[in-house]
Design goal:
Helix content: 55-70%
Largest sheet: 4 strands, mixed
Structural class: alpha+beta
Strand order of the largest sheet: 1-2-4-3
Distance between the termini: 17 Å
Number of helices: 20
Strand content: 5-15%
Radius of gyration: 22 Å
Shape: globular
């Protein structure tokens, strides 16, 4: 059976590639580190302007942050790139103003309906962590609400002019659209995999009050926001954006406006990790951040995360594995072709085709009997074999 290291290698296929990491380093590191990354991009012949244009929204959203780094560190950049980044910053400034107006309207609506909420992700981080909403694009407004209130919250927003009547999804989210087109995502738990949870009762007592869109609002404590950002990045669809890296790096550096002397309570992170059973994806992400951006939790915390990851149950491993291509089936082949030995690849393939009984019960939503378990395995093995064979025949130097 595949070892923990094999699962870690598969999860690492969801991390930014070499070029993406260099661009992020140019945006986030100090002057010396930023210059080294920028010079490396130049030596590789990377056309950053073209990358921002055709590299997908994950790249384009870095333009304002890159513009700040280009100016602050006096990096050599061609005029076209500077113009592109400056225009992106100007557009983001206009968008940030509109986003703040919509956010204030949504807050007013929910407060009038006496519905509590916690602001998540971009809206929660743009002002307190980045210091300037222009630097952190938010493509939607995400709010954690009590499960008992989620439909009432959606109804209140629809009464206030929002559109949308989709049902509560399996991932614990319901989405409506403000008349400006901005999606408002109502979540009943932090993490989409049901195993990971992160319900309202757990989170409500672990919040901080900050200014969002000119209003006081509840957000997660910095280390819990870091945990949320890192685990969300482990999902396949989270890979399309690089902003989770900038979120995580800035959270570790300064927390919610805490500055360089900010001292987070890392025990909250460990408690949240154990409760949500997310040590395996968290250890992979934290290792990447420490290696590439020199931001790390205290050694004792890192060691505790690694120990917990090594003890991950079969169910935890299989859910983490499934998250790699969650919402993005094309990630499957790349994941199973991770740089692991042939025997490890066979072990991973076996777990995908014939997962543990605990995972079968998790997917079926009940403790299956012998008949339903047999039927589940038969369907699973048949469906996955055609996907797995090309991956098993793949050879590498690993």
């Amino acid at each position: 059976m595949a070892r923990t290291e094999a699962y870690t290698a598969v999860l690492a296929t969801n991390l930014p590639g070499a070029t993406e990491t260099l661009l992020l380093q140019a945006c986030l590191l100090d002057r010396e580190g930023s210059r080294r990354a920028w010079d490396a991009l130049t030596e590789l012949g990377v056309d950053v302007s073209d990358l921002l244009t055709h590299g997908g929204h994950g790249m384009r959203r870095l333009a304002p942050l890159l513009y700040e780094a280009l100016r602050a560190h006096q990096l050599d950049a061609d005029p076209e790139l500077l113009t592109r980044c400056r225009m992106a910053s100007m557009r983001e400034e206009l968008r940030a103003r509109a986003f703040a107006r919509v956010t204030a309207t949504v807050f007013d609506t929910l407060e009038e309906a006496e519905i509590e909420f916690v602001v998540l992700k971009g809206a929660a981080l743009a002002e307190p962590v980045y210091g300037n909403p222009v630097l952190r694009h938010s493509h939607d407004l995400e709010l954690l609400v009590p499960e008992a209130d989620v439909h009432r919250a959606a109804a209140a927003l629809r009464d206030a002019g929002c559109d949308g009547s989709e049902p509560l999804r399996a991932g614990g989210k319901l989405r409506v659209f403000h008349d400006s087109g901005l999606p408002v995502v109502l979540r009943t738990r932090l993490f989409e995999p049901e195993l990971y949870g992160g319900d309202w009762e757990w989170c409500r007592g672990r919040t901080a009050t900050v200014t969002v869109a000119g209003r006081e609002a509840l957000v997660l404590k910095p280390v819990l926001a870091l945990h949320h950002v890192c685990v969300h990045a482990a999902y396949g669809h989270g890979r399309s954006s690089l902003q989770w890296v900038t979120d995580a790096v800035l959270l570790v550096r300064g927390g919610m406006g805490g500055g360089p002397d900010f001292c987070p309570d890392w025990t909250d992170l460990l408690e949240s990790m154990e409760r949500s059973q997310t040590a395996l994806p968290l250890s992979t992400i934290l290792a990447y951040l420490a290696r590439e951006f020199a931001v790390a939790a205290p050694a004792s915390v890192t060691e505790a995360v690694q120990r917990s990851a090594a003890r991950a149950t079969p169910l935890e491993r299989e859910v983490a594995l499934r998250c790699v291509w969650w919402g993005r089936p094309r990630n499957f082949t790349k994941a199973i072709r991770a740089e692991v030995g042939w025997w490890e690849r066979v072990g991973l393939a076996f777990r995908i085709a014939l997962p543990s009984p605990a995972y079968a019960a998790y997917r079926l939503g009940r403790q299956p009997g012998l008949g339903s378990l047999t039927a589940y395995y038969a369907r699973r093995a048949t469906r996955q074999t055609t996907r797995l064979l090309p991956c098993l025949l793949y050879t590498s130097d690993a």
